[in-house]
């Protein structure tokens, strides 16, 4: 690969952590095509639309004379980044379902070469029960967080009904977002101070020596990030989730988190390990630290505005997964929603995320980015699962005139047995689940989360307000 110019840009601290000797985390973005895929426009789409989005898509990570990592622009050979796999010949969508799932597992484990820009695209032309074909983007997390990457992917897409009109999004209430600057203002409130001390102290313990219990959702083994994963999705109707939200007078994210938590505990119960329903299990809930009310254009994200800028702008909070207590009444499942609401609301009234950021910066300053990356890896490894979500467009999208019937994403390379990522699209909520192969039964887990939703919907319909 030829160097295009000597222009360099420092790699952000988070970019260095996510591309280090102990961490290499990527994001898979999956687009489901409604029609058979014609891959002839791929090169022009990447050259004319994708690469101009951000210089990082045309850069590699190098070290300068002082050993500091920099982004260096290079001349991109697009053919090195395009993969069109050939599956065995067979009939029936169900056969290609398995082939596609195996292929996702394969690319989730493969490492992006450091000698070229840290992204690649996979065009799968074979039909499955979900789609007539798939386009999978794999982008290294060092390039940016979910907000940035989603913005980049959306820049390659158009409205299927009228390409001249912009995509629109539901109004974003930042239920799972946090403005880090806002954390400073709560020091005058006693509750905020108490929550900060408690949350920061607990977070510090969870990142160092306080591991979650080994359970049916957490093997706790070293090197779990190098093991094969099963990636599958669950689809919910947003109108039904909104009905639960209205009846319980909570937020959509409270409902979603409650459903995931309840389904997870049901899965633990289904395994026959009764003690695991009360185990010490925590989820890392990712928070967007931008002060935003919706997606911004890529042009706005690359401007030097701290509220919208490109890159990794997120934090996380530790949330204990509520215990599964035996109860005969139907009202019980929705207590998971209220408990999730209470925990997240309390933790947002805290400067713990802000202090955690300061801690990471201090570690980087005095011990270096590799030591900081180890701290982050321990934080992930010691918890049981990660939950992240994004808001997708209301209208149907199209890529190179291929209407997209669905979209989802998954974070891979994380040292956890269970990862969950959610995105809304066309009135549906797509929940993507990544599970450690051989440790978690994907079919049983999917069934338990679906059952959680069904039970929650039924219980919420009979409960218009929070129980006493």
Distance between the termini: 65 Å
- Arithmetic mean pLDDT: 82
State the share of residues found in helices, binned by percent: 25-40%
Strand content: 15-25%
What is Rg?
22 Å
Query: What's the β-strand tally?
Result: 16
**Which class best fits the helix and strand makeup?**
alpha+beta
* Form type: globular
Widest beta sheet: strand line-up: 5-6-7-2-14-13-8
Order of helices and strands: EHEHEEEHEEHEHEHHEHEHHHEEEEEH
Please describe the biggest sheet, giving its number of strands, its sense, and whether it closes into a barrel. Answer: 7 strands, mixed
Count, helices:
12
What are the low-pLDDT stretches, counting only 5+ consecutive residues below 50?
174-188, 289-308
What would your notes on this structure say?
It contains 12 helices and 16 strands. Mean pLDDT is 82; it is low at 174-188 and 289-308. The chain has 468 residues and is of the alpha+beta class. α6 packs across α7 (252-270) and α6 (238-248) packs across α12. A 7-stranded mixed beta sheet has the order 5-6-7-2-14-13-8. Strands 9-16-15-12-10-11 form a 6-stranded mixed beta sheet, sandwiched between helices. Helices cover 33% and strands 22% of the residues. The termini are far apart. A hairpin with an 8-residue loop joins β6 (119-124) and β7 (133-140).
């Amino acid at each position: 690969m030829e160097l295009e110019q000597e222009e360099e840009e420092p790699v952000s601290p988070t970019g260095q952590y996510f591309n280090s000797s102990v961490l290499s985390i990527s994001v898979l973005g999956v687009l489901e095509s409604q029609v058979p895929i014609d891959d002839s426009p791929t090169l022009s789409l990447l050259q004319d639309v994708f690469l101009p989005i951000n210089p990082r898509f045309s850069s590699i990570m190098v070290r300068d004379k002082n050993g500091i990592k920099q982004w260096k622009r290079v001349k991109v050979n697009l053919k090195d980044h395009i993969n069109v796999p050939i599956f065995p010949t067979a009939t029936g969508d169900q056969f290609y379902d398995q082939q596609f799932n195996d292929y996702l597992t394969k690319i989730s484990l493969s490492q992006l070469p450091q000698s070229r820009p840290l992204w690649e695209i996979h065009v799968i032309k074979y039909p499955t029960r979900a789609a007539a074909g798939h386009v999978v983007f794999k982008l290294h997390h060092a390039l940016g967080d979910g907000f940035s990457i989603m913005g980049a992917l959306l820049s390659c897409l158009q409205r299927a009904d009228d390409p001249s009109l912009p995509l629109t999004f539901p109004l974003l209430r930042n239920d799972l977002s946090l403005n880090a600057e806002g954390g400073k203002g709560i020091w005058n409130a006693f509750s905020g101070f108490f929550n900060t001390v408690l949350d920061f102290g607990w977070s510090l313990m969870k990142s160092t020596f306080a591991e979650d219990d080994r359970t049916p959702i957490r093997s706790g083994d070293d090197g779990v990030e190098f093991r094969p994963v099963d990636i599958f999705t669950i689809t919910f109707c947003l109108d039904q989730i909104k009905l639960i939200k209205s009846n319980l007078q909570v937020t959509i994210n409270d409902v979603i988190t409650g459903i995931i938590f309840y389904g997870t505990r049901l899965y633990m119960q289904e395994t026959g390990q009764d003690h695991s329903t009360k185990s010490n299990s925590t989820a890392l809930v990712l928070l967007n630290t931008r002060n935003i009310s919706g997606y911004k254009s890529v042009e706005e994200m690359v401007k030097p505005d701290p509220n919208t800028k490109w890159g990794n702008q997120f934090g996380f909070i530790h949330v204990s997964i509520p215990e599964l207590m035996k109860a005969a009444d139907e009202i019980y499942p929705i207590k998971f929603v209220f408990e999730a609401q209470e925990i997240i609301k309390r933790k947002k009234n805290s400067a713990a995320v802000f202090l955690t950021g300061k801690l990471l910066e201090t570690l980087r300053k005095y011990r270096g980015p590799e030591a900081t990356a180890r701290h982050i890896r321990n934080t992930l490894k010691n918890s049981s699962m990660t939950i992240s979500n994004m808001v997708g467009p209301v209208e149907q999208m199209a890529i190179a005139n291929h209407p997209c019937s669905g979209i989802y994403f998954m974070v891979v390379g994380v040292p956890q047995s269970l990862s969950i990522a959610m995105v809304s699209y066309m009135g549906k909520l797509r929940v993507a689940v990544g599970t450690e192969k051989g440790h978690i039964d994907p079919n049983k887990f999917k069934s338990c989360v679906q059952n959680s939703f069904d039970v929650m919907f039924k219980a919420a319909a009979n409960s218009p307000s929070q129980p006493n």
